[in-house]
Design a protein that fits this description.
This protein has 4 helices and 2 strands; from the N terminus they run H-E-E-H-H-H. The protein is mostly helical.
Amino acid sequence: MGNILAIINALALFIIGIFHIYWAFGGEVGAKVVLPEMEKDGLAFTPSKLATSIVGTIFFGLGILPLIAMEIVVIQLPSFFNDYMILGLGIIFFIRAIGEFKYVGFFKKVKSTMFAEYDTKYFSPLSFVLSIFFFLIEFLFRT
């Protein structure tokens, strides 16, 4: 069961990483709905191609961590990583699901934009599910 959860989370993070790399190289599919928007003034921010590439690379790295934790992939990491990485990822994705209370997350105030609609339907629930899976991996299978 823990291995299945680890693989699901890893695949989700790899797919998110692939999309970021795709966008960094000029891909347009989905690009119009993944950046927070202000109600009247357009995008809340516009990331550079370099920043988007870095985020994609980070997601690839994060995708490997649940596989390492469940010993599906064997890479020797410092004990701090082994002890706290899955719990940390669960916390990070839980915070992402809650959001920053303006543009992102379940408790956002700006709800009338295309991003807000996708965030409510897809991005925040995905973050919440990833966090729950990480918590399950940590507490049910690694203690």
